[in-house]
Amino acid sequence: MTTPRSARPRPSDPSPGSLEELAGAPLSLRERKKLRTRQTLRREAVRLFAEQGWEATTVDQIAAAAEVSPSTFFRYFPVKEDLLLTDEYDPLMAEAIRARPAGEPFLTSARAVLVGLVRRMLSEQERAELYERMRLAASVPSVRARMMEGAGQPRGMLLDLLTERAGLDAPTLELRITAAAISAALTETSLYWADRGGRDDLADLLDLALEHLQGLAAH
Prior knowledge:
Layout: H1 17-23, H2 29-52, H3 59-65, H4 70-76, H5 82-85, H6 90-98, H7 106-121, H8 124-139, H9 141-148, H10 155-166, H11 173-195, H12 202-218
Helix pairs in contact: 2-3, 6-10, 7-12, 8-9, 8-11, 10-11, 11-12
Domain HTH tetR-type: 35-95
InterPro entries: Homeodomain-like_sf, HTH-type_TetR-like_transc_reg, HTH_TetR, MftR_C
Region (Disordered): 1-24
């Protein structure tokens, strides 16, 4: 007797619980469904990339493994590369930074929030998945190129927050540079971590990188 496809074991099924805990509030049913679909697509994709390689894995295969249609895939990820470069944590970062003291230097706020978020969100499974994503980002030319274009980076979110905190209608050059520098620090830290086999503590590396940025800003 053939086991129905929907009944097969799915050890990689994601749980939105950790994201809900980080957000400090329960997600709506619609938000939970969207989150589950995004995470399932990404985790099935990472599994397939590990099994058969980046080039050999198609969007149709990923969608089938996640039990959704290809059109659903493209609603969540415009291109295959974005599976590796985007996540669900930007809104949490934005709200947490807004909750920091208004007079606090922005780099201090960003460092506290980003390092704290990384420490709290990386379970063993999430750490392994992030490592595989960053390893592919470093080794697959099309993913590296899209990353260098800024895809998946929180630069826009950071710039909005900087502009909001400054009470301006439009960002200045200095604010654009600050947002770009923080975003670049996140990217380069993740790539450095993956280049070293993921053996370091990612939160410690990020703390070091943002401390370095603070030092540069002080001079």
